[in-house]
Amino acid sequence: MVLSDRTAVKSALRGQRIETPSWAFANSGTRFKVFPQAGVPRTAQEKIADAATVHRFTGAAPSVALHIPWDWVDDFAALGRYAEDLGIRIGAINTNVFQDEDYKLGSVTNPDPGVRRKATDHLLEAIAIMDTTGSRDLKLWFSDGINYPGQDDIRDRQDRLAEALHETYDRLGADQRMLLEYKLFEPAFYATDIPDWGTSYAHCLELGEKATVCIDTGHHAPGTNIEFIVAFLLRAGKLGAFDFNSRFYADDDLMVGAADPFQLFRIMYEIVRGGALDPAYGINFMLDQCHNIEAKIPAIIRSVMNVQEATAKALLVDRDALRAAQRAGNVLEANAVLMDAYNTDVRPLLAEVRAEAGLDPDPIAAYHRSGYQEKIVADRAGGQQAGWGA
Amino acid sequence: MVLSDRTAVKSALRGQRIETPSWAFANSGTRFKVFPQAGVPRTAQEKIADAATVHRFTGAAPSVALHIPWDWVDDFAALGRYAEDLGIRIGAINTNVFQDEDYKLGSVTNPDPGVRRKATDHLLEAIAIMDTTGSRDLKLWFSDGINYPGQDDIRDRQDRLAEALHETYDRLGADQRMLLEYKLFEPAFYATDIPDWGTSYAHCLELGEKATVCIDTGHHAPGTNIEFIVAFLLRAGKLGAFDFNSRFYADDDLMVGAADPFQLFRIMYEIVRGGALDPAYGINFMLDQCHNIEAKIPAIIRSVMNVQEATAKALLVDRDALRAAQRAGNVLEANAVLMDAYNTDVRPLLAEVRAEAGLDPDPIAAYHRSGYQEKIVADRAGGQQAGWGA
Amino acid sequence: MVLSDRTAVKSALRGQRIETPSWAFANSGTRFKVFPQAGVPRTAQEKIADAATVHRFTGAAPSVALHIPWDWVDDFAALGRYAEDLGIRIGAINTNVFQDEDYKLGSVTNPDPGVRRKATDHLLEAIAIMDTTGSRDLKLWFSDGINYPGQDDIRDRQDRLAEALHETYDRLGADQRMLLEYKLFEPAFYATDIPDWGTSYAHCLELGEKATVCIDTGHHAPGTNIEFIVAFLLRAGKLGAFDFNSRFYADDDLMVGAADPFQLFRIMYEIVRGGALDPAYGINFMLDQCHNIEAKIPAIIRSVMNVQEATAKALLVDRDALRAAQRAGNVLEANAVLMDAYNTDVRPLLAEVRAEAGLDPDPIAAYHRSGYQEKIVADRAGGQQAGWGA
Amino acid sequence: MVLSDRTAVKSALRGQRIETPSWAFANSGTRFKVFPQAGVPRTAQEKIADAATVHRFTGAAPSVALHIPWDWVDDFAALGRYAEDLGIRIGAINTNVFQDEDYKLGSVTNPDPGVRRKATDHLLEAIAIMDTTGSRDLKLWFSDGINYPGQDDIRDRQDRLAEALHETYDRLGADQRMLLEYKLFEPAFYATDIPDWGTSYAHCLELGEKATVCIDTGHHAPGTNIEFIVAFLLRAGKLGAFDFNSRFYADDDLMVGAADPFQLFRIMYEIVRGGALDPAYGINFMLDQCHNIEAKIPAIIRSVMNVQEATAKALLVDRDALRAAQRAGNVLEANAVLMDAYNTDVRPLLAEVRAEAGLDPDPIAAYHRSGYQEKIVADRAGGQQAGWGA
C-alpha cells in the first residue's frame, strides 16, 4: 500500500460512524430465561450514559438509537440535551407495536381496524418525538404475521400494511426518513408480513424517496447472500440502514462479526465499493444485538471494533487489481485479491487510527481500566433494571 | 379395505395414547411478548384438570407430563391421586435446569463444578418425584451450550455431560427410564451440547438399556428427514419418546400436524411399520407445544386429533401392495400406494371410533358446547397465571 | 357444498390448464449420473407426441413448452402444425444460455462483452421463434452467477443484466411477454445474479408491463414461504408463471406435490383467492421437473393430477366461513376452515369432472392400458435419446 | 509467542499432511454443464503427475487418493511405483457404486439382491487394489437413497447396508481401515441411507475398530456445527478422515476455506485441541473438491494453503489463556483469545516454514513460473480428458 492510499484508508476509518442501540445495554434473553446483569441501566438516561461510554472509548459511536416506549421520557428535548452533554446524540427512533395486548394478532395488519388505528398512531407519535430530538430516521420493524395457515388473509394484510405506511410516510418532515426492516420469522411462525428485502423494497418504492430498506443481518433465510442484497439496494438507491449483529441459526442477535467475520467483510466491501461508507451518503450503520450472557458494554465496544476491522479490510482491497482480474475472467486471481485484504491483520492499522485520534489503541482494555463498570455496578443498585419488558 | 382390516385399524386407533404436557395449558410466548389468556391455570392441579378435560373429549390422552419446578407441589402423591380422580395419571417428569441464575453458562456442562452438582441434584430429585408419582419416564432436555466460539471447550462439556448422565442413570429404578432429548439450537446460539439425534443416541448407548432418545419434531436443522431418524432408532431399539409439535422455521412449537401434515403421516407410518404404535411397545407419544395466540385447550384437542388422523392414514397403507411395488423397483407405484392412504379422508373413520367408544365424534365441538371454557374463565379470576416463569 | 357451488368448482377444474415441458420427457439426472430410460424421445416431435399423450389422458395439458436449442428444428412453423395435429399447441419458449463453452463465467452478465452479445442474440432469436410458433411467453432463466467471492463485481453484473433484459424486452411483440425466473443457487455457488423474487420483481418493474415474475417452486432458500410470494405478486400484478415441481432440499425437481402437498394446496389457495386460476388471467402454470428414476410420462400425468387435486381442495375452501373467522380473530377456527378443505378427499370429484369431459376417471391406469408406453419403447430403438445435453 | 512455542508451531506445520484427490484434476461440473479445461489429465498417471506437482510446490500433499473405476489401471503395483517415482504415494481408495445402470435404485441397499451382490463385490475388489497399492484407507461413499416417500423401505435399506458393510469390513486386512462417509442429500432427494454423522457413527461402532467416520465438510444440513462433530468423534475415537471443501448452499465442492474460513479455523482448532493433527494420530485429511470454473492445479495448491493457514491460526491459540477464561466463565475474554489467533496474519509464518523446507514461500507464484501448466496444455492435446464419467 502506497502512503497516499494508507492515508485515505485511515481517513475513511476515522470518519466511520456506528450507531448503538439503547436496548443492547439493557437486559435481554430468550423465551426461556432473561439473565440479569449487575450494573444494567434502569432509565433512558443511564442507557445513554453507557452509549456515551462506548463512544468515549471507540470514537466511532456518536449516536444512540432509542426504542419507544422502552425509552419513553416525558421530556425528549431534555433527553437530547442530556445526550449532547455526554458527547453523543440521539439517533434513530425505533417504534414498538408488538408488546401491547392489543397486538396479539398484529399491529398495522391486524384484522381489527381499531388496533390498526392505535398502531399507526404510535408510529405518528414516534415522528413527533423525532421532531423534538432532531432524529432523522424512523425505524419500523413489525412483528406482524400469522402462525397458522388460514389464520388471516395474507394479501389483505399487505393492503393494511400499505395503508399504515402511507399515512406514516406522509407525516414525515422534509429531513426525515423511514427505514423499513424485514424479517423472515419470529415472533410470527408461519407468514410474516414483511419477510424479505423484496417486500420491504416494493413498499419503499411505492412510498417514495424518503423510504428505504433496513437490512438486519440476522433476519434472512439460511443461505441468503446478504452482500448481494447490499449491492442490489445500493444500485437502486434504496439502502437506508443496517441492523448489525450475527447469527449461526436464526435471529441469534450475537455480536456482529462473531459468527462469520468473512461475511461481514464481504458486506463492508460492497459498501466501500458502492461509495456508501461516508456518513454523507446517508446509511445508518446501527448495531442491534442482545448480549444475553456476556458483559454488555465491552461486547458493544467489541462489536464496534469488529465492524471497523471488517471495514479496514474492505478498504484495503486492491480494487484496480481486482477489476483487472475480474475483467480477465481470472477466477482464482480475483478471489485471491479479495482474500489478500481479508487475510491482512488490520489491528495495528486501527490502533494507529485510534492513537492519532487521541484514543486508547485498545478500547476494551481501556474500558476495563477505566473503572466505569465497577462504578455502574455500585451506583445502579436498586430500582428496576431496564429490559425488553420495561 | 376388507372388514377384518378395518376392525384392526379401528382397534389400533382405539388403543393409541398421547400424553399432554402440563405447560401447554399455561401461558407461553416468544422473547418479545407473552400474551396471557383468560382461564389459564394457576396451579398444577388446574393444569391437570385441563389435561383431564382433553382426555374426556378425546379418550386418547390419559396422562399428563409434569415439569419441575413449574409443577412443584409439596405432596406429589396427593397430586397423583388428584389426577386419578379426574381419570388420568401423571406421566413423564420433565426437569428444568435452565431457569436459575446459576445456569447462565450451562447446567450439567457448566465449567463450574458447583453448578454441575446443583443441576445433577435436581435431576436426582426428579427421580424421587417419579418414585412418588409412579412415573416411568424421566425426560431430560438441556439448554446447555455456548453462544460464542471459544466460550467453553466443546469436548470438556461432553465429558461433564456424560458424568451427570451416568450419575442420574444409576439412580433410576428398575422400571424407570431416561428420555434424552436433543435440539439444534436455542437458547444456545453457537454450539449446543446435545444438538442432534446422533449425540443423544451415542450417550444413550453408553448409558444402557434404560436410556433412549426423545425426538422433538421441531428440533432439527432445515431439511432433516425425521422419519429416517424414527426408522433408524426403532431398528436400533433406542427410540423412547416423541415431543410432537410442528414448525416452519425453528422450534416454532406450533400444533403438531399444522405445518406439514404429510411429514407427520410419514413419521407415523414408520411407527406403524415398526410395530411401535401399541403402548406396550413403550414409546411415549407426547405433545410439546406452545399455544401463544390460539385458545389452549381446543388447540391441544386439535393436536391430539391431528396425530390420530395421521395415524389412521398410516394404518391404512396397503403394506402388501407397498412391499410388492418396492421390491419390483416400481417407484411411481410404491409412492402411489403411500399417497393413496395419505389422500384418504379418515375423519369419518375416526368419528366412528369415537362414537363406538362413547365419545362425541367431534371433540372440538363437544368441548365448546360443554361450558368448560366459560367455567374456567369465570373460576380462575385472580391469582397468578401459570407460565414458563412460574 | 350446495349444488351451485359444486358446479362452479367443477367448472373451474374443467377450465384449468397446465403446460408440460418438453425436456421432462427426455433423459435427465444429477451431476453423478444420467440413467437413460427406454422409449425416451429422440426429437422435438417425439417429445411433443408424449406431451400430447399426457393431454389425451388428462385433458388439462394442452400446451408444451420448448427449450431452445434442445428442441431446435429448422421449421418451427411445421413443428407447431405437428403439435396442433396432435391436439396441443406450443407454449412458452425457454432459452438456454448456459451450455455453451462461452458461458463458463456467465451469459448476459459475463465480463466479456462479446459473450454478452452472443447471449442476448440468442434471446432475440428465441423471440423470432415465438413469432413463428405464436407463443406468448419468453421464459428466461439465467444460470449466471459466480462461485467465489471477488470473482466478479456483483453490481456490475446487475447493470449488464439490466441492459440485456431491456434489449430483449424491447424486441417483444405486442402480444408477447417475458417471464423472468429466479433461483437461489446452482449452478452458481456463491452469488446468483437473479437469486430471489425481489430481484426478478425489481427488474420486471423497470422493464414494464410485459415483464412478469416466474416462480419455480424449487428455487428458494429453506423456509421461504412461497404462497406469500404468490399473494404478493398477484397483488402487484406481476406474477406471470409457475415452474411447478417439488423439493426436500435444493432444486430437487421432483414431481410437484410429492414433497409437500400441503404447501401446494396453500399456493393454489392463493391463486384461487386472487382470482388467478382462470386461463384468461394470464398465468402460465407450467411443470418443470426431472424424472430421473421414475417412468416419465406417468410421472407427468401424476404431476398434472397432483396440481388438480391441490386446486380442487383450494376451490373447496369455504371462503365466507374463512373470512368470518379471520375477521373475528379466531385463529383455530380460521385454520380449521382451511384444513377442512385440505383434508377432503377430492379424488371422487376429479374423477367425476374427468368422466363428464369424456376422459377416463383414472388417467394413470388408462395410460398403462393404452399400450403407448410399449409402443414408444419398441418404436424408439436406435438413434440418440434426447437429454439436457442434446 | 515465545521462541519455543514458535518452534513447536512451525514443527507441527511442517509435519502436516493433506491428501489430494485424483478426480479434482479432471473435468467436473454441474448437471447443467461440464466446462472442460485445457491440459486436463487423460489417464490415472497424468492425474498422479499433477498431484505430484502440487506436492512439489507445497511439500504438504505427499499422497493422492484414487477413485475406482475412474482411475482403473491393469497394474496397480506399477501405478504405485509410478507415483513413488514422482515423490508421492497412493492414498485412500475410493469406491464408486453409483454410475452403473444397475445402481439406479441403489447399490448396497438396492431392493434387488443381485445388484447388492455386484456392489459389494466392487467394494471387495477395491480392497484387493489396496493390498496391491499398500493403501491403508478404503473410503466408502454411497449415493444410495430414495427420491420419493414410499419408494423403498427405509429400515430394510439399513439392514441391507449393515450386511454389505459387515462383509466388506471382514475382508479388511490388519492394517487396513474403512472410512464411512455420510451426506445429507444428492443424488438422492428424499431419504439418503447414510444422511448424517450419527448414522455413520452407529454403523462404525457396530463394525469395530477399523471403521471410522469420514466428515465431508459440504455434506451437512444448513446450520450444522461441524466442529462439534469433530470434537465429538475425536472424543469417541471414531474420526477417521476429512473430505475438505467448502459450500455456501449444498454440496458446492468449492475450495476449502473459500466460503467460511472462520469455520475451517474452528474445525482445525478442534483437531489441534484433540491432538489429532499429527499424521501418527491417523486422520486422513483429504481434499474433495470440484474446480468447475477455476484452474485446477492452482486451485488445489490454494486449497492446501488454506488448510495450512487455518491450521497455523489454530496452533497459535493461547490455550492456557483460553482455558483460564473458559474456567472463569469469561465469555468475552475466551472468545477474544480465540479470535486473536484467527485475526493473526499467518502468511509470513508459513512462508518461513516453506523456505526452511527448501520450498518457494509462494507456491502459487512458483507454480505459475514453473511452466508446468503450459507444458500439460501442450502435451495433453488429443485423447479423452478424464472426468467423472470417464
Automatic annotation (TrEMBL), chains A, B, C, D:
Keywords: Cytoplasm, Isomerase, Manganese, Metal-binding, Rhamnose metabolism. InterPro entries: L-rhamnose_isomerase, Rhamnose_iso-rel, Rhamnose_isomerase, Xyl_isomerase-like_sf. Pfam families: RhaA. Transmembrane segments: none annotated. One of its GO terms (biological process) is L-lyxose metabolic process. PANTHER family: L-RHAMNOSE ISOMERASE. NCBIfam families: RhaI_grampos. This is L-rhamnose isomerase/sugar isomerase.
